């Protein structure tokens, strides 16, 4: 396959609706969705994607019931503890970005541990955005620059102060569950991203459908404001 995207982002939407449709508690949708994430990480690495960014928890998700938020944090913690060997075996580096300082201490430590233990991995980087918002990232970047005495804010300045400055611009953004919006996800990095939407709920999203999105992207001509070929 030609024209493999370097950086793919996924808004993993539909866990709760999937569970409700099956008569299950919403948390069961999140549990199944976490396992789907494992398969998509492996599929992205096999295809040749270099960066895979996954919207795990937005700054707006704090509005959900307290019990669901606590379950999600515990699920993330169990995920990073139980999937460490998988990341090592797949040679995938783990990164977490967002307003991590607002997360429970145990979760911050879990993220730091898997980041440190996978820091040498080179095949792909899996970026989990947690307590993340695109507008908030830009605000935090500008405030960090001001705090360090930067006198003039340029595009390069903002990029250098983002949560993960080395993260390249997003080539392809996938959203599941039929919603047609980007929901404050990687706004700075998405200036010229290609969009791909599917009605499939995240727990039903398969490596085959992921490959279909990549194939669709590979046929597109990206002009970045120019005239193209």
Automatic annotation (TrEMBL):
Q: Does the keyword Lyase apply?
A: no
GO biological process per UniProt: polyprenol biosynthetic process
Among the Pfam families in the record, one is: Prenyltransf
Q: Has the keyword Nucleus been applied to this entry? A: no
Top-tier EC class? transferase
Q: Where are the transmembrane segments?
A: none
A molecular function annotated in GO for this UniProt entry is: ditrans,polycis-polyprenyl diphosphate synthase [(2E,6E)-farnesyl diphosphate specific] activity
PROSITE patterns, sorted? UPP_SYNTHASE (PS01066)
Which residues are noted in the entry as Mg(2+)-binding? 13, 194
Cofactors: Mg(2+)
Q: How is the cofactor bound?
A: Binds 2 magnesium ions per subunit.
| Domain of life (superkingdom) | Bacteria
Give the active-site positions. Answer: 13, 61
Q: Matching InterPro entries, A to Z?
A: UPP_synth-like (IPR001441), UPP_synth-like_CS (IPR018520), UPP_synth-like_sf (IPR036424)
Q: Which UniProt keywords apply?
A: Magnesium, Metal-binding, Transferase
In short, the EC number is: 2.5.1.-
The residues the record assigns to binding substrate are: 14-18, 26, 30, 58-60, 62, 64, 175, 181-183
Record-linked HAMAP family: ISPT
Q: Which family does it belong to?
A: Belongs to the UPP synthase family.
Stored NCBIfam families: uppS
User: Which function does this protein serve?
Assistant: Catalyzes the condensation of isopentenyl diphosphate (IPP) with allylic pyrophosphates generating different type of terpenoids.
Subunit: Homodimer.
Q: What is this protein called?
A: Isoprenyl transferase
UniProt organism field:
Desulfurobacterium atlanticum
